[in-house]
Design a protein that fits this description.
Chain A: InterPro entries: MetI-like, MetI-like_sf, Phosphate_PstA. The complex is a heterodimer of chains A (284) and B (311). Chain A contains eleven helices and no strands. Chain A has 284 residues and is mainly alpha-helical. Chain A starts with a helix and ends with a helix. The longest helix of chain B has 58 residues. Chain B has 311 residues and is mostly helical. Classes of the chains: A mainly alpha (284), B mainly alpha (311).
């Protein structure tokens, strides 16, 4: 009898301990957000969004970072979505179960585990030097495309796998070819899931700084980019630049920049979760 | 009569043409999509070739043994020394601290969410962990530098401004969601019949979780640990911001170190003209980093494949 009491007590203690451990992540997140908001809020004025960085903290703004990030993300989506979706469609719909397919799948999984800084070195060697694109938006976007490609591929694959088989069979029974079935049935049905992956990759590209630093993105520029061959900076790099300056005011500016970054990320995150819930319902 | 027959055969011919076109476009589409899939392989080949090519430039001047076993990393000295051990030591020290945080916290979070939490609690906690997973590493770097380090300095006054412990804690927190979500997937894949069997024999929930469910899911859990280690080794911004830039062969977590990744960032920002040993050293360190993370990724896949139990 005593033994059972002891075991039940142990269970209750365990329950309490792992609940508290689970809260660690949540508490840290709360502390981090509150800390950053308190530091950064005073600098979040209209000027902050329309000014260039300046050596006077109260005049400094984040405009070049925002514009640069929009360029990079826009181009990355243009490159990564067709390639990623195409790869996923090939792997799920066309590929035979042979060694090439297996190799491609293992390869994608390894690429998704490769540190982003390694892609930066690839970008530096191939896009910046060998192809002669220089320290440009195009080099940055191509590098970023390779970073997010595995995310687009894997999430599109999941979405395509979730399309019920009978929809495909219905289409074939009406005499459609595989390509017609993919275009008119499979991809439209999987669209919300594919879109989720695209948003995920956008938020990854938005927060990623290491590969851009390596391909030579500037941390400080005085002119907005006017084309794909311009030098550029990006939101996280602007934040990194301010963090490295010795004055406390600049660290607070960095916090203001982080608020902007996180606000965009949380919005996209909420969008993803909403879409996924809708998607799950529509499949069921 | 013959007129209608004519339109009939016309129709048939048109139909045949249409079907032919459909089939041709199907084949074209298939081949184009295959080319897209090949891009992923080209990426890997690109990584290997670009890292190898410039590493060869490096290793033609520095011997591999000097690189791998040298204890001095001083690329900027007038007589530079390229022993990578201090960078490896810094990387492993930070990874160790990160693992010390991410592995137990991640695993217990996974057990709580999969075995104990009811649906309502799960619905609240899961999205929060997803938000944590989506926070960019530069933000954790900021947090380490402006919050964790001052707290550490308050607790242990001899902590340096840039130190291993602060960076390691931040990297660990960043990797918690990775461990918890992958481990939770593994735990949830264990069939309920096993749990019911254990409970029917009179086990408590804790005994069921720790002695039946966790052992049954151990391959997925172990794989998540390996992936977390690999992620910590490749983490760049946190260590660049919070751990400093001093190659330092030390085990003291209160000191500043340089990791493989933060060296790559530092060297790429400096003036290392193309063709110098300094420039090539970037790629030699990158190659080592790539090989280590590749090895860990393969190991994690291997664990999943080899020890997966089918129920």
């Amino acid at each position: 009898m005593n033994n059972i009491k002891y075991r039940k007590m142990k269970n209750s203690i365990f329950h309490g301990v792992i609940f508290c451990v689970t809260l660690i992540g949540i508490i840290v997140l709360a502390v981090l957000l509150i800390d950053i908001v308190i530091r950064g809020i005073p600098y979040l004025t209209g000027k902050f969004f329309t000014n260039f960085p300046s050596r006077f903290p109260n005049k400094a703004g984040i405009l070049p970072g925002i514009v640069g990030s929009v360029w990079i993300i826009g181009l990355t989506v243009v490159f990564a979505v067709p390639i990623g979706l195409g790869t996923a469609v090939y792997l799920e719909e066309y590929a035979k179960n042979n060694w090439i397919t297996k190799f491609i799948k293992i390869n994608v999984s390894n690429l998704s585990g490769t540190p982003s800084i390694v892609y930066g070195l690839l970008g530096l060697a191939v896009f910046v030097r060998t192809l002669g694109l220089g320290k440009s938006i195009l080099s940055g976007a191509l590098t970023m495309t390779l970073v997010v490609l595995p995310i687009v591929i894997v999430s599109s694959q999941e979405a395509i796998k979730a399309v019920p088989q009978y929809l495909r069979h219905g289409s074939y029974a009406l005499g459609a070819t595989k390509w017609q079935t993919i275009r008119k049935i499979v991809v439209p049905t999987a669209l919300p899931g594919i879109f989720t992956g695209v948003i995920l990759s956008v938020s990854r590209a938005l927060g990623e700084s290491a590969p851009l630093l390596i391909v030579g993105a500037a941390t400080y520029i005085s002119k907005l980019p006017d084309g794909v061959s311009s030098v550029f900076t990006a939101l996280p790099l602007q934040i990194y630049y301010w963090m490295g300056l010795p004055k406390q005011e600049f660290r607070d500016l960095a916090a203001a920049g982080i608020i902007v970054l996180l606000a965009i990320l949380l919005t996209t995150n909420a969008l993803t979760i909403g879409l996924r819930n809708k998607f799950q319902k529509s499949i069921e | 009569m013959s007129d209608t027959a004519g339109t009939e055969s016309n129709k048939k011919a048109a139909n045949k043409n249409r079907i032919k076109r459909m089939k041709v476009s199907n084949i074209i589409a298939k081949n184009i999509l295959f080319l897209f899939a090949v891009i992923t392989i080209l990426t890997t080949i690109g990584i290997v070739i670009s890292l190898l090519k410039d590493s060869i430039g490096f290793f033609s001047e520095i011997s591999i043994t000097e690189f791998l076993f040298g204890t001095e990393w001083t690329p900027l000295f007038s007589e530079p020394s390229f022993g990578v051990l201090p960078l490896i030591c810094g990387t492993l020290l930070i990874t160790f601290i990160a693992a010390l945080i991410a592995i137990p916290v991640g695993l217990f979070t996974a057990i709580y969410l999969s075995e104990y939490a009811n649906r309502r609690v799960r619905k609240i906690i899961k999205p929060i962990l997803e938000v944590l997973a989506g926070i960019p590493s530069i933000v954790f770097g900021y947090f380490a530098l402006t919050t964790i380090t001052p707290v550490l300095q308050f607790l242990i006054p001899q902590t340096e401004v840039f130190n291993v412990l602060s960076a390691g804690i931040a990297v660990g927190i960043m990797t918690i969601p990775l461990v918890s979500s992958l481990s939770e997937d593994a735990l949830r894949a264990v069939p309920d019949s096993l749990r019911q069997g254990a409970l029917a024999l009179g086990s408590t929930k804790m005994e069921t979780s720790m002695k039946v469910v966790v052992p049954a899911a151990i391959s997925g859990i172990a794989a998540s640990f390996v992936l977390a280690v690999s992620r910590a080794i490749g983490e760049t911004m946190i260590v660049t911001i919070a751990a400093g830039a001093r190659p330092n062969l030390t085990l003291n977590p209160l000191q500043s170190v340089q990791t493989m990744t933060s060296f790559i960032v530092q060297a790429s920002q400096g003036d290392n003209p193309h063709g110098t040993v300094g420039y090539y050293s970037l790629f030699a360190v990158g190659l080592l980093l790539f090989l280590i993370t590749l090895g860990l990724n393969i190991l994690s896949n291997f664990i999943v494949e080899k020890y997966r139990k089918e129920y």
